[in-house]
Each structure stands twice: as C-alpha cells, then as structure tokens.
Amino acid sequence: MQIISTFKYAVAIVASSFMLPTFAQSVSADTVSAPKKVSRLTLGGYGEAVASRMFYSNNYKRYTDASKYKNAKSFGQFDLPHVVFFVGYDFGKGWSMGSEIEFEHGGTESAIEIEEEETGEYESEIERGGEIALEQFWIQKTFSSKFNLRLGHMVVPVGETNYAHMPTEFFTVFRPEGENTIFPCTWHETGIEAFGRIGDFRYEVMAIAGLDADRFGNKGWIHGGAGSPYEFKMATCYAGVLRIDNYSIKGLRLSASGYVGNSATNTLNATGKYDDLKGTVAIGTFGFLYNDHNVIARGNFDYGHLSNSLEITNANIASRKDSPSPKTSIASDAIAMGCEVGYNIFSLSKKLTSADQRFYVFGRYDYYDSMYKTVANMTDEPQWGRQKITFGVNYFPMKEIVIKGEWSNRLFKSQFNNEPTISLGVCYNGLFRL
Description:
Layout: E1 41-54, E2 75-79, E3 82-92, E4 95-104, E5 109-115, E6 121-128, E7 131-142, E8 148-155, H1 160-163, H2 177-182, E9 188-198, E10 201-209, E11 238-246, E12 252-261, E13 281-292, E14 295-306, H3 309-317, E15 333-344, H4 350-354, E16 358-373, E17 385-398, E18 401-411, E19 419-433
Antiparallel strand pairs: 1-2, 1-3, 1-19, 3-4, 4-7, 5-6, 7-8, 8-9, 9-10, 10-11, 11-12, 12-13, 13-14, 14-15, 15-16, 16-17, 17-18, 18-19
C-alpha cells in the first residue's frame, strides 16, 4: 500500500507500495511551552463499497454458447472489493515496521449449527465468501534517501496498478481491469527489498519467492500464481524485480518495471509433474502519471512471456480432481495496455477551488488478452481478448474521500456478447494518528 507521507522526517522515503511515516519533533519558534510529542504508532487504511448493475448474462456458459444469452436480463451486485487496515510503528534509530491486513469482498464468515434434520449433528457452514489476507508485514532499516532495506512480506511493484492500487489513485470504480486480470493484484510476496532515490530517479530492487505454475490459467494468465493454497508459500524457485521511476519533468512520473523468475517447480508434488521444466515468467512494463494543470492522465503497457506453457498446460489439465489448479490452457504470452484521462471541472470556479474540492470527468480505454499468443498444438480462446471503455466522474469532497460513478462496456469479438455495466462507489484512503 503506497501512502505518501505528509509528515516531516529527514530520511523518510516513499516506498513502492506504502511508506511507514516516521516523525520528528518540531517546535515553533514562537512556542515557549514544552514540545508536543508525536506518537510513533501510525494507523491507516483504505476501503471501497460498490454497487453495480450488469446488463448481460452471468451464466458460466455465456462464452461457450453466447447466442443463447444475447438478450439476458440484467442483474445487480453489491460488493466490498477491498477494506484494508494498516498498522505501522517507528522504533527509532532508523528502524520501523509496517503491516497490512486486507478483507476482500467482505471477508469470510462461518458458523456452527445443530442440524435437526441430521439427528442433532453439529455442522459448519460457510455463510459469506471473500478473502482475508495479511498483505504486508515488513521490518525496514532507513539509512539515507539513497539506500534503504526492507525485509518481510511486501507489495511487488510490477505495473502501475500494483504500484498505485489505492482507490484514490485511479478513476475507475474497480481497479484498472487489464493489469488486475493478467497479474496478481495486489501482488504481495515475502523477500528482501532495497530502494531509494538518486536525483530524479527512484529505484526498487527485490528478491522474492517465485510464482506457482499450478495456479496459472486461461482467463487470468499468471494472476493466481502468487497465492498459496497451503499454510506456507513454496519457495523452491526465486525471482527478481526491478522498478525505476523518473521525475525529471514537473508533474510527470515515467516508470519501467520488470520481473523474471521460474515457476514450474514452485509447487507441491512437482517431481514427475514438471520434470526438467523451468516455466520462466518474464514481464516488462512501462507506465506514466501526469498530474498538473487540473489534468490527471495515467497509462500502462505490459507484456509477459511464459516458457514451457504447453507442458505446464498438459500437466495441470492432468492434475488430480482435488488439485488447486484451474486445469485450463495457459498462453505463452499475455498483454495489457490502458490509459485514462480526467479533468477537474471545479477548477473553472474560484469558489469551488478554494474549498479544496475536486470533481473529475474522465474516460478510460483498456485492451488486454490473457491468451495473446499460444504455442502450436494449443487452441486459442478468443473470448479472453478483451477491450473496455469507461466514462465517469470522481468527486473528492476532500483528498481522502472519493465518490465514483461510471458507465463501462467490455467489448469482445463479434461471436460473443458485450458486457455493459453501471457502477457507483464510495472510497477512502488515509492515515490516522493517535
């Protein structure tokens, strides 16, 4: 989680995902009373509540037999996509920690009931879907603005959405769909990271656990590979991450990031299933953010390659029925690109501008294909080549809160049905000091 610190501290650095603010005492020159101590404990978080109406079928066969669902009735959904709580602490002498727990889609709920129809047996039932995950837990040593170390569980800053994934950092009601589909999002792994800023350049270098090829699939490419169905994360394979951001031009950030790591043996029971396979995942991304003159523009281009995709596909399809694998085809290459532009129309009014409120009108375009290229002897699945257009508004009554509304349409090739949607959302993102 990336939080731009607003507090004074000589060696505070903005990290790839979020930075634990550290504080220094300060005393006004006009103050004669004792300085007020600032708590070393930092609380914060972000959250989203969303309502959507989908004007297409939600039947799981809507792609395999699209003509039957062309005139389907609309349906609605309420959701809590992400609710996150952050706790950080400054130990002093450059040492700090950060932790983040996330509830996706409301978390999970279970209950134990006595079933009268089953001779009074106790029965456990799942009452709500969703996920609860510890997305970050790290210890950081701050040396200087040019070099710092972080060890533990961290966000992997590959692509623009993983780098800036809080709801005040993108216009759409849901996270930008392309990167959110083909990459793990928010991508978090355990490892070690070095980061810092030298002049107009900021860098991040990470050594982390590799992805799990068991979890790759057709709809989301490597999206599921960062998670683990076990009580631990397999780390037979390792991976490296590099990200560079440039701030040479006022109001503009240019970014490039890359990832390389093997995946085939990073799962249980890999012997025999993935013999002599590497399953190397290589990703390259480019992104930008422009924020000036009451205009915000963001964009991304991402390309990924997976070696041994056919062999991994065959092994996964042949997995046992109780395997966590999706058991689908996996492409050798995937692609995602997107761009959004918004203009603050409140800037046209001096009164509204002075009230520190913003109202953006925006448009966004995405193209992404989780099966962009397939090797010979693998059937392409054209429904996973998608485009999406979105138009909407963002109202910020203050910088920490945003109310969003949008119309979007997911566009497919002619043999499939398009998927228009209307969504409303309310979101927050902020730090809370005790």
